[in-house]
Amino acid sequence: MQRLLIRNISKLVSCDEGDTVYENVDLYAEDGVIRAIGPKLEKPAEEVLDAGHMLCYPGLINTHHHLYQQFSRNLPQVQNMELFDWLKTLYEIWKNLDTDVIRLSSLMSHYGLLLAIAAGVILSGILAATMSTSDSQLLAAASSVSQDLLQDFFRIQLTPKGTMLAARGTVVAIALVGVFLAWDPNSSVFRVVSFAWAGFGASFGPLMLFSLFWKRANKWGALAGMVTGSVMVFVWKYLIAPMGGAWAIYELLPAFLCACVAIVAVSLLTPAPNRDVIETYEACRK
């Protein structure tokens, strides 16, 4: 039997029906059960604590928790909802939870360290890929400005030192733009990059595929595909996706499909590529 004696409790809150508060008393317990409360108790105990100038309050077991919500915390459709809309939407999901789901969600909530470690490893991989991509993009941008734009396009003759300074200036300018974009705490670099890649993918993706696998594609179809894809990215993101429901999908998919349709339709409605282009295409395919 484990016995505990707490002496000289300054104030002991009983939480009985009358909310009685005892002052300058002792508390005696056996195996976690309170057996006596009173002044200067003479009880043998293996553990004796001095609680002078301390408050003693019953320990409460919290039975109100949200562990069952583990599987519904990251649903995209509820992220920006007001409280009551959020509750009404999730109540329709929670009312169908069974004991297995509640058990698994409770286990994940209690033992989330392994999941946190796994998430850390994944995020480290994402960060490594991001840094590698950033390095390549900075190098490509610096080379394009210092060589292609300034010297080849604008015909500005630069010394090797001038070329190096132009490349470094480009990197600094891109860094400043990046700082400006990241300055807003409510902005998301991921959303910016995602939108940018949607534009690239919808504008040039269909064009590359049709150029490689369909010899009937011509320059007018290519131009129509690039324009349609780039415009549709903006239209879908800012006009159609806010409607919600099935329309709230990543803008790359509908823009990509619209660009494909534009390439096929315009290519068929305009003259076919000349014989030299067709012969070059056939030679490359062999």
Summarize the structure in words.
The protein is an alpha/beta fold. The protein is 58% helix and 12% strand. It has helices at residues 83-94, 99-110, 113-153, 160-183, 189-213, 219-240, 252-269, 275-285, and strands at residues 3-13, 21-30, 33-38, 47-50, 55-56. Strands 1, 2, 3, 4 and 5 form a five-stranded mixed beta sheet that branches. β1 (3-13) and β2 form a beta hairpin. α5 (189-213) packs antiparallel against α6 and α6 runs antiparallel to α7 (252-269). The model has no long low-confidence stretch (mean pLDDT 89).
Give the key terms.
286 residues; elongated; 5-stranded mixed β-sheet; alpha/beta; single chain
Helix-strand blueprint:
Blueprint: E1 3-13, E2 21-30, E3 33-38, E4 47-50, E5 55-56, H1 83-94, H2 99-110, H3 113-153, H4 160-183, H5 189-213, H6 219-240, H7 252-269, H8 275-285
Parallel strand pairs: 1-4, 1-5
Antiparallel strand pairs: 1-2, 2-3
Helix pairs in contact: 3-4, 5-6, 5-7, 6-7
Q: Which percent range describes the beta-strand content?
A: 5-15%
Got a strand count? 5
Number of helices: 8
Uncertain stretches of 5 or more adjacent residues: none
> Portion of residues in helices?
55-70%
The backbone outline, from C-alpha atoms, is: elongated
The gist of it:
By secondary structure, this protein is of the alpha/beta class. It contains eight helices and five strands, in the order E-E-E-E-E-H-H-H-H-H-H-H-H.
